[in-house]
Automatic annotation (TrEMBL):
Source organism per UniProt: Actinomadura gamaensis
InterPro entries: CB (IPR044068), DNA_brk_join_enz (IPR011010), Integrase-like_cat_sf (IPR013762), Integrase_catalytic (IPR002104), Integrase_recombinase_N (IPR010998), Integrase_SAM-like_N (IPR004107), Tyrosine_recombinase_XerCD (IPR050090)
Database matches in Pfam families: Phage_int_SAM_1, Phage_integrase
Tyr recombinase domain: residues covered: 155-334
Protein name: Tyrosine-type recombinase/integrase
Disordered, as annotated region: 1-33
Span of domain Core-binding (CB): 47-132
Gene3D superfamilies for this protein: 1.10.150.130, Intergrase catalytic core
Keyword DNA-binding found: yes
Length: 346
């Protein structure tokens, strides 16, 4: 009996090896769909019917996907899955749980981070839940699918130290444009996501209770008001003065008036970081990571930093606390002082 089971397992293993990702489609790089029309073409090529296409259009603009940035991210993630199904000869309209498991395995083997894998799977699972509700598919193949275990204690993003942030800002003040200097200040001072800051508009700047503030659309499509500290205000005012103080439109634009794109900012921050001697690759998100980490390291209360970062769960904020296990922060010393008997001088 045991020998028979072992033989069956070996056969299953050999079958699985036939579809390993080293001979399958690459799942990183340029997304197969970056616009609604491209996704529709992928879905039709994958055998999906028109009711599913129409339901997908509604899904993309409903719920938590109200912002253009969020919609674009979900569209790309669904596009990767539909493209994978076509490449693997799987049916996107009627996939099996085994298809879902193999897709997750291919994502992991492609070298993507655990966070990226989980995000892509979560997006496709949300899509299928909607299609099931609309009667377009029979079941969600990702329901109950195993996903890579996330490190819930620490963020994997590379952040900058206080000195490195100061060096980057000082370098930008002396050697970069007013636009770059203002953008870097806002990225750090607001801990804002780069997509939100690039979508911010001049008319979103105002005053509130003596503070200069900026209202931006954040993750989930909600609006959040950021207080701007004096150095950020000065940098922003200088940049807008150079632009002739426009009354409306995106804050950060090219010389021809087009909004800046994230790919440009990625290259920009890495070039400046390299010039400042930062020994590792960073991303725009590194400034958000740095702001949260530094605030926690300086002893700001967790709930205050959580609100500043816009995290729904305090456990997310805690991941940025590099000193959470530091022995000199242990409350044991304060507790002992409260109960230990006082000693009298001899």
């Amino acid at each position: 009996m045991a020998a028979t089971q072992g033989t069956e397992l070996a056969v299953e293993q050999e079958t699985a090896l036939e579809v390993r990702p080293d001979t399958g489609p690459a799942l990183r790089g340029t997304p197969p769909a970056r616009a609604a029309g491209e996704l529709a073409s992928l879905m039709r090529a994958g055998g999906m019917d028109e009711p599913a296409l129409r339901a997908t259009g509604v899904w993309l603009v409903s719920g938590r996907r109200s912002s253009a940035h969020t919609q674009a991210a979900y569209l790309r993630d669904v596009g990767w899955w539909v493209w994978w199904c076509t490449a693997r000869a799987a049916k996107a309209q009627d996939p099996t749980p085994r298809d879902a498991d193999l897709y997750v395995a291919d994502l992991v083997a492609s070298g993507l981070s655990r966070a990226t894998v989980n995000r892509r799977v979560a997006a496709v699972s949300s899509w299928y839940r909607y299609l099931v509700r609309e009667g377009c598919v029979a079941a969600n193949p990702f329901e109950g699918a195993e996903r890579p275990r996330m490190d819930t204690r620490h963020s994997r993003t590379r952040g900058l130290t206080k000195q490195q942030v100061a060096d980057v800002l000082a370098h930008a003040a002396e050697h970069e444009s007013a636009r770059t200097y203002a953008l870097l200040w806002l990225m750090f001072a607001t801990a804002g996501r780069i997509g939100s800051l690039l979508s911010a508009r001049v008319e979103d700047l105002s005053e509130d209770s003596g503070h200069r503030v900026l209202d931006v659309t954040v993750k989930g499509g909600q609006s959040k008001r950021f207080a701007l500290p004096p150095p950020a205000v000065a940098a922003l005012d200088r940049y807008l003065a150079e632009r002739g103080r426009p009354g409306s439109g995106p804050i950060f634009v090219t010389r021809t008036g087009r909004p800046l794109v994230q790919s440009y900012v990625w290259k920009l921050v890495n070039r400046i970081a390299t010039e400042c001697g930062v020994p590792f690759t960073i991303s725009p998100h590194s400034f958000r990571h740095s702001a949260i980490t530094i605030a926690l390291g300086e002893g700001r209360p967790l709930h205050v930093v959580q609100d500043f970062a816009g995290h729904a769960d305090p456990r997310t904020t805690r991941r940025y606390d590099r000193d959470r296990d530091a022995l000199d922060r242990s409350p044991a010393y304060q507790l002992a002082a409260l109960v230990a008997p006082s000693t009298r001088p001899g």
